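Module 6 notes. Inverse folding takes a fixed backbone as the condition and produces residue identities as the prediction. Think of it as a translation problem where the source language is geometry and the target language is the twenty amino acids. Below is one complete input and output pair. Work through it position by position during the lab.
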């Protein structure tokens, strides 16, 4: 972890202007957006914390040995109690490599929490009753451990909503930049 201080400007003496910026790679800091490097570091540590959280929460619910992607696939397959196609799961989760999702689906099927069925040419996936029970137990643990610890009031919930909107916007920018980089 590198710490990099943002240079002060004479006309900007606020504490935020001189506060040290924590970035993951100081060599990537751009004078046009130092904040983006700080955001990327926050994204790295929050992604790792979130991944650790969902694996531990699902383990506490009784499903051990799942990867973060496995947990997310199970939740998405369970979402709105509608059968999902592999391509739909990949699209919604923004995963290009269908093999990753397919591997998770096979693993979840072997555990008996997801089942597949044919509908014409399409193969669709749904949670089993056992899968729904694990997801419900996960929800209960999430409520007890995460939601209770957050102690969010209306103001904090509004900030979280704005952050979610900003993350969706930035994910679109990163996707566009990835397409541009792939064409170089």
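Target side of the pair, the amino acids:
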């Amino acid at each position: 972890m590198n710490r990099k201080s943002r240079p002060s400007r004479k006309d900007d003496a606020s504490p935020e202007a001189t506060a040290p910026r924590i970035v993951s790679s100081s060599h990537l800091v751009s004078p046009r957006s130092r904040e983006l490097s700080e955001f990327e570091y926050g994204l790295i540590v929050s992604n790792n914390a979130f991944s650790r959280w969902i694996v531990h929460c699902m383990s506490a619910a009784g499903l051990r040995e799942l990867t973060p992607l496995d947990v997310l696939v199970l939740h998405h397959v369970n979402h709105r109690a509608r059968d999902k196609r592999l391509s739909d799961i990949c699209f919604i989760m923004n995963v290009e490599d269908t093999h990753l999702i397919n591997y998770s689906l096979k693993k979840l099927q072997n555990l008996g929490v997801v089942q597949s069925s044919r509908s014409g040419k399409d193969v669709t996936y749904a949670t089993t009753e056992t899968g729904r029970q694990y997801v419900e137990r996960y929800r209960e643990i999430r409520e007890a451990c995460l939601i209770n610890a957050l102690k969010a009031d209306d103001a904090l919930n509004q900030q979280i909503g704005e952050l979610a909107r900003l993350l969706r916007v930035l994910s679109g920018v990163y996707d566009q930049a990835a397409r541009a980089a792939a064409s170089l």
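Reference fact for the lab report: The radius of gyration is 20 Å.
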